[in-house]
Design a protein that fits this description.
This protein is of the alpha+beta class and 240 residues long. Helix content is 49%, strand content 12%. The protein has one domain: Glutaredoxin (3-Layer(aba) Sandwich). It has a 5-stranded mixed sheet, with helices on both faces. It has a two-stranded antiparallel ribbon with strand order 1-5.
Length: 240
């Protein structure tokens, strides 16, 4: 059985009206098994093409051969697991070497406590060009902010520990100016029919869902890079 199936079943799923969770799991599981046996990479049903260049945070070379889009929720345990066990190695091996461009689109799935506050905190960190540092800190210290009655103080402490300017961060959070951006990310996630986190989208709208182990994700990236079908993705807009 494909190694990706376990990741599919372990992923966090957004409730969809009229579609029972077990039904969706079984359909998704059986579909992924079939796909894995043939091409080794999950392929979603055809969806309208959508330009994602205005969304998220981009890391890597504009001339990279492959772009991977990751939809995540900071409150998601599977996102935390992927970040801890796989992302750092993949970033060093493929992003820093110019082979892969990685687009992170954090959104609020709606299933995790205080994840909207964490998403806004990450966007405020991006104002100081420290999104990735804050991203890692929010994942690593998820239990510090997600279990409290109010996460405000904990998020402020995490920001300062991550090297952000505390006063600027506090002002950004208080202003709520990142709220429209966070809402826009959820809108685009739902328009792309992203109902679970983490979800990774490859060229051709092919998808991988869940905390895929490092070895399997590395193999997927190498296969994509070696494929003659991979076309260079458009250069990303400068990150703000």
């Amino acid at each position: 059985m494909c190694n990706l199936l376990r990741a599919v079943l372990n992923a966090h799923l957004l409730p969809v009206p009229g579609k029972p969770l077990m039904t969706r799991l079984l359909r998704r599981a059986s579909w992924h098994v079939a796909v894995c046996l043939t091409v080794g990479l999950a392929t979603a049903r055809a969806l309208p093409a959508q330009d994602l260049s205005a969304f998220g945070h981009v890391f890597g070379s504009s001339s990279a051969k492959l772009e991977v889009v990751e939809f995540l929720d900071f409150g998601c345990i599977q996102c935390e697991r992927f970040n801890e066990l796989a992302f750092g190695n993949l970033y060093n091996e493929f992003v820093l070497t110019g082979q892969v461009r990685w687009r992170v689109i954090p959104f609020v799935l709606g299933a995790f406590r205080h994840s909207a506050f964490a998403a806004e905190a990450a966007e405020c960190a991006a104002e100081q060009d420290l999104f990735l540092v804050m991203h890692d800190s929010l994942m690593a210290r998820r239990s510090d902010w997600s279990t409290l009655g109010s996460p405000t103080q904990a998020l402020a402490e995490i920001a300062r520990d991550a090297g952000l300017n505390g006063a600027a961060f506090d002002e950004c959070v208080k202003s709520q100016r990142m709220r429209p951006r966070v809402r826009a990310h959820k809108t685009v996630a739902l328009s792309k029919k992203v109902y679970g986190t983490p979800t990774f989208i490859f060229p051709g709208d092919r998808r991988v869902l869940g905390a895929v182990p490092l070895a399997q994700f590395r193999a997927l990236l190498r296969a994509e890079l070696d494929s003659n079908s991979v076309q260079a993705a458009p250069s990303p807009k400068p990150q703000r």
